[in-house]
Design goal:
Elements (H helix, E strand, L loop, with lengths): L4 E6 L5 E6 L5 E7 L2 E6 L3 E6 L6 E9 L12 E7 L9 E11 L5 E9 L4 E3 L14 E5 L4 E10 L4 E2 L7 E5 L9 E9 L3 H18 L1
Parallel strand pairs: 6-8
Antiparallel strand pairs: 1-2, 2-5, 3-4, 4-7, 5-6, 7-15, 8-13, 8-14, 9-12, 9-15, 10-14, 11-12
């Protein structure tokens, strides 16, 4: 697919492993099962469908963030679009990301991480998502914008070159209202690292310099 390598492996146990590597020049459609498919915009993303018997679509996700927005100087987000492809009675009304492995190769240190739901008003993060472990890099998960955004912050953050593994305990839970106005349901999950603003960095440097002068 226009220079990208797509591998899809399915077993009798209904595990589907879909790997994407290459540039961000094309979207890749990934069949997930349980009434859903995903469209990934970006590069270096792997989704794994975890077999389950609870009627919920369980996923794990690996991502490597490498690109910088030339206008803002901040990391470029990774966006996954989820599309309903079966009737409501054959579609899972929850999608759970049980765990993630996220690599920071952006050249910047992150002080936070946003996960944002878009396109449809029929989706929201379950409040239990705030219990997803994000340490030791971050200390706090906060739901915002009507439970359509989760911000992880506090703590030392994710240093450039480091791997962050949220979800060792707890999970990111997405609730979908299949009976809502949107039919079929189409929504996006955008993951966006945040970095200190240049002003904050400058103020921090000024503060450190002032402390150094007082000590001398």
């Amino acid at each position: 697919m226009r220079g990208q390598n797509l591998k899809c492996i399915a077993s009798v146990g209904a595990i589907a492993l879909v790997s994407l590597a290459g540039t961000a020049s094309a979207d890749v459609i990934l069949p997930l099962g349980m009434g859903w498919e995903a469209v990934i915009t970006g590069s270096n993303v792997t989704l794994t469908v975890v077999p389950s018997t609870d009627g919920v679509l369980h996923l794990t996700k690996d991502a490597v963030f490498t690109e910088i927005d030339p206008f803002t100087g901040a990391p470029m987000p990774i966006t996954i679009m989820f599309r309903q492809v079966l009737p409501d009675n054959q579609t899972a009304s929850q999608i759970i990301i049980d765990s993630e492995m996220i690599m920071n190769l952006t050249g910047l240190n992150w002080d936070g991480f946003r996960q944002i739901l878009g396109l449809s008003n029929n989706v929201s993060f379950d409040p239990s998502s705030t219990g997803m472990s994000v340490g030791p890099e971050f200390t706090t998960n906060t739901l915002l914008n009507g439970n359509r955004e989760m911000l992880s912050n506090g703590g030392p953050g994710v240093a450039n070159g480091a791997m962050w593994m949220p979800g060792a305990t707890g999970a990111l839970v997405i609730n979908i209202n299949l009976a809502g106005q949107d039919s079929p349901v189409i929504f996006t999950l955008k993951e966006l690292p945040t970095v200190p603003t240049p002003g904050a960095v400058a103020l921090g440097a000024i503060g450190l310099a002032a402390m150094g002068r007082r000590r001398r």
